[in-house]
Amino acid sequence: MNVPCPTCGKPAALSVDNPYRPFCGERCKLADLGSWLNGDYRLPVSDAESDTEAPDP
Ligand SMILES: [Zn+2]
Q1: I need a labelling partner for 40 at 20 to 30 A (CA). Which of 7, 17, 33, 34 fits?
Q2: What integer pLDDT is reported at residue 28 of this predicted model?
């Protein structure tokens, strides 16, 4: 069974043989993770830390 890769839209195997499912490969999985880290998705985290630019200890 194939599903469109959420990142690039190419068919991705949705099977245990594909460790990167539902992505087509490692690159697309990492790209999706990167978009999370870049803030494309907002996580319900407290912004107390991100708003405060505390100097490094
Ligand atoms: Zn892909």
Answers
A1: 17
A2: 94
CA of 8 to the centre of ligand 1 (A): 4
CA of 25 to the centre of ligand 1 (A): 6
Longest CA–CA span in the chain (Å) reads 51
Structure tokens given for 49: 């830390």
CATH code of the domain containing 35? 3.30.50.10
- Residues 8/25, Cβ–Cβ less than 8 Å: no
Residue 57 Cα to ligand 1 middle (Å)? 41
46 within some domain: no
Output the pLDDT for position 15: 92
Domain span at residue 34 reads 2-39
